[in-house]
Design brief:
The complex is a heterodimer of chains A (436) and B (363). Chain A has 436 residues and is of the alpha/beta class. Chain A has 13 helices and nine strands. In chain A, the strands form two sheets. In chain A, strands 1-2-8-9-5-4-3 form a seven-stranded parallel beta sheet, with helices on both faces. Chain A has a two-stranded antiparallel sheet with strand order 6-7. Chain A starts with 6 loop residues before the first helix and ends in a 15-residue tail after the last helix. Classes of the chains: A alpha/beta (436), B alpha/beta (363).
Chain lengths: 436, 363
């Protein structure tokens, strides 16, 4: 083989081999499914028309997998209370997830999806925003939702679609939102929230509100046409929007190998004309710092930004799929039973927890106690929510429009007449709801 | 204040007496004569629409007009002189992307803005169907009324223009009438265009506003220069009659009224109605009329199958079964893509409508 290579190429090959060995030994390269690239501790957004894009965009991180500061890292200023609250929130999401996922398996809920492994993406970014910034989620952002003060009990009511559910029982579990907390409602389909977040951001700019909009989507969702559409409009019209992509490696069963051939998602932001960065999405400090800077760019420069947060979806997509059928089994490095096991060991909760423990702000006993409390609260919330009555049947017909047009009045009358006539067959509908 | 001394031919809701200007009709000219408090001016339909946009931008600081090519005035001049008065922050050129611009409008409206979107041709609204039908239409319902996008209005030039072919001629109202949560409006002339557009912009539900582009310059009438609205969901009885009820919307209203005039000459008394709002449609006015006449004809340019005439026919046969003297007639476009060379044969022209009136009356 040596004779077939010219001298220059052989030299390149030798240099490449040495460099590769060095990289492996220093673990400077990330192992994320969606894109593997060099880590950097420099918070740098790549600006279009200014910076050259490398072959693979580096991955910004501040703490390593054990929660130790990496060389050259400058942590963002976060008060200790806030740090503890961030850990608190991630743990709460995790405990809520476990209770409600189990509840679905027991047949108590129709559907559920967990946030396992991605808690830092939503808590870290949520914590870097102002309370009235508009959040346009996909559906795996319970962390940002709880951070805003949305409660376990509200989530439980929505999951049980009872009469306390703000959505009046209309949607699948975890299709939550809140007007007073500027949390737009989750919906099942993918991507539509992204152009909408751009319009909302524009409105904030027009009304001089000094607020931005953040929108979340997965790397799979990024293939939908709505995403490049939104990126383009946001850049053209200088909308203060933060595009936050959770690249978790899988879109239901679809590995990123089948989703795109690009260097992940972050370069698309640059391509459409906005400062963009790739971060270690399981490093809550990196997520926080990047989002803080993105917000500054939004408000001060009136520009959109893209943050691609590399992470890993530890659980299945939802309770409707069996990930043993498609999840890749090989760990990225030796010494772990599986790909999933590798990432479980370096989950965001473990990494921040380790950092806090080293700083004397957290102990494993505190975490265990917190888990016990939040688990109990989640179980109680579920039990309570199950006992609350379903919404009044009138709400089948309300809120389609601002008022109830004749068509829906007529259909309501027909339904009630039908229920009266066949009441024996509709025993679970309270009779007083369809009385004449 | 202008009053024309003309024979009243019908009732225009919102005014005391009115007839209809139709420069497409060469044999008889109808003129809209409206008694309205306040100054009126002769305007084409597109100028009336332009004026509505101007009034909306003047009266609502949260209003923004946006779409492809709107800044220079629009390919049909519907947005002339707006950016000069209101600035580039409120009159935005959008990249060629219907799903993106409609989604943008949804987001604006969701946080309190008034988003007045233009889709350059109704034929190009389809990329935005997901945003319109899955997002805009369901925004209020799925959030338990915490949020809504009532502030969204989507305008789109629609229907036949004489030479438009497949992609400059469509009338897609039926697709949207089938999605609960949307309103669909179709003016017939300059006066109704301005009043209905202002009402649509201010309506608390997302509205799709189809503008019969062939009438942009052809429809001229006295239009109030000030701020006025015409009610959505209200059909207009243009001429009273006792033998047959005829219903149409948009440009087809004028084809219908010409056909009715032919039938009048044969002694058939026609009650001609402009539906104006497709969703939610004014069933009560149609029902009252059909109970009087016993016969119904509905005519639209859109293809027959799945067209909105089917909805009207099904409901009216249910509501008026005992009153009907004849099957309900539908005179519509053929079930084909909108052709170029065959446009005149494809369309439900005056003779087809007249023939159906006669057959229905003589059933």
């Amino acid at each position: 083989e040596g004779t077939m290579l010219c001298r220059a190429t052989r030299g390149q090959l030798q240099r490449h081999t040495r460099a590769f060995a060095a990289a492996a030994s220093e673990c400077t390269k990330s192992k994320f499914v969606g894109a593997s690239s060099e880590y950097t501790s420099t918070l740098q957004f790549f600006y279009p028309h200014v910076h050259d894009l490398p072959a693979s965009m580096p991955c910004f991180r501040l703490i390593d997998d054990e929660g130790v500061l990496v060389p050259g890292a400058y942590l963002p200023e976060i008060e200790d209370d806030k740090l503890i609250r961030m850990q608190n929130t991630m743990v709460t999401v995790n405990e809520f997830d476990k209770v409600f996922n189990d509840a679905q398996r027991q047949g108590r809920l129709s559907f559920y999806f967990t946030n396992r492994g991605e808690e830092a993406c939503s808590v870290g970014s949520g914590a870097a925003l102002e309370d009235h910034d508009w959040i346009w989620p996909q559906y795996r952002e319970l962390g940002a939702t709880f951070w805003r003060g949305y409660t376990i009990e509200e989530a439980a009511n929505q999951c049980c679609h009872n009469e306390l559910d703000r959505t009046k029982g209309r949607q699948l579990p975890m299709h939550i939102g809140s007007k007073d907390k500027h949390l737009m409602y989750v919906k099942s389909n993918l991507g539509q929230q992204v152009p909408a977040s751009v319009g909302a951001a524009y409105a904030m700019k027009l009304m001089k509100k000094e607020l931005c909009a953040i929108t979340y989507f997965g790397e799979g969702c990024a293939s939908e046409g709505d995403i490049p559409s939104a990126l383009n409009i946001a850049a053209v019209h200088n909308c203060p929007t933060i595009f936050f992509c959770r690249n978790n490696g899988y879109a239901i069963s679809t590995h990123t190998d089948d989703q795109y051939k690009s260097d992940g998602i972050a370069p698309r932001g640059v391509a459409f004309g906005m400062p963009s960065i790739r971060v270690d999405g399981n490093d809550i400090f990196a997520v926080y710092a990047a989002t803080k800077e993105a917000r500054r760019i939004a408000i001060e420069e009136n520009r959109p930004t893209m943050i691609e947060a590399m992470t890993y979806r530890i659980n299945a997509h939802s309770t409707s799929d069996d990930d043993s059928k498609y999840r890749r089994s090989e760990s990225p490095v030796e010494g772990f039973d599986s790909e999933r096991a590798y990432w479980e060991m370096r989950s965001p909760i473990i990494r921040l927890g380790s950092y806090l423990e080293r700083r004397g702000l957290w102990t494993s006993e505190q975490e265990a106690e917190l888990r016990k409390v939040q688990r109990a609260r989640s179980i109680k919330a579920l039990n309570d929510a199950e006992r609350v009555a379903p919404p009044h049947i009138d709400h089948l017909f309300t809120d389609v429009y601002d008022d109830i047009p004749w068509l829906l009045r007529q259909q309501g009358d027909e339904l009630r007449a039908h229920l009266r006539k066949y009441s024996k067959h509709y025993a679970n509908v309270p009779a007083d709801q369809y009385r004449e | 204040f202008v009053r024309h001394k003309m024979r009243a031919a019908g009732f225009l809701h919102g005014a005391r007496r009115a007839r209809h200007l139709c420069s497409l009709c060469h044999r008889r000219r109808f003129t809209t004569a409206v008694e309205i408090a306040g100054e009126t001016q002769k305007m084409t339909m597109v100028a009336a629409i332009n004026d509505a946009l101007r009034v909306a931008l003047r009266t609502d600081p949260a209003a923004v007009v946006f779409g492809e090519d709107v800044a220079f005035g629009g390919v049909f001049r519907a947005s002339m002189n707006l950016v000069e008065e209101f600035g580039p922050e409120r009159v935005l050129n959008m990249p060629i992307n219907e799903q993106g611009l409609v989604g943008f409008g949804i987001g604006m409206a969701a946080v309190g803005g008034t988003a007045i979107a233009e889709v350059q041709f109704a034929d190009y609204i389809f990329p935005a169907m997901d945003q319109i039908c899955n997002e805009a239409a369901k925004f209020r319902y799925r959030s338990g009324n915490e949020f809504d996008v009532g502030g969204l209005t989507i305008r789109a030039p629609a229907s036949a223009v004489g030479h438009g072919g497949h992609y400059h001629s469509q009338s897609p109202e039926a697709y949207f009438a089938h999605t609960p949560g949307l309103k669909v409006v179709y003016p017939r002339d300059a006066y109704t265009a301005k009043g209905l557009l202002l009402a649509s912009i201010r309506d608390k539900n997302p509205v799709i506003f189809f503008e019969p582009k062939i009438l942009y310059r052809a429809s001229v009438g006295q239009v109030p220069v000030g701020d006025y609205e015409l009610p959505l969901g209200k059909a207009d009885i243009l001429t009273a009659g006792k033998d047959i009820t005829c219903v149409a919307w948009g440009a087809q209203v004028h084809v219908m009224t010409k056909a009715c005039a032919r039938a009048e000459a044969d002694g058939i008394s026609c009650e001609a109605i402009d539906l104006a709002t497709i969703a939610p449609w004014d069933m009560h006015t149609i029902r009252t009329s059909v109970k009087k006449t016993g016969r119904l004809l509905v005519t639209h340019e859109a293809p027959l199958t799945g067209g909105f005439a089917g909805e009207i026919a099904a409901t009216i046969q249910d509501e008026c079964f005992d009153y009907l003297e004849a099957p309900i007639a539908r005179v519509t476009g053929a079930d084909t893509p909108f052709p170029l060379a065959f446009e005149k044969l494809y369309l439900p022209d005056e003779l087809k409508v007249y023939d159906a009136i006669v057959r229905t009356a003589n059933y």
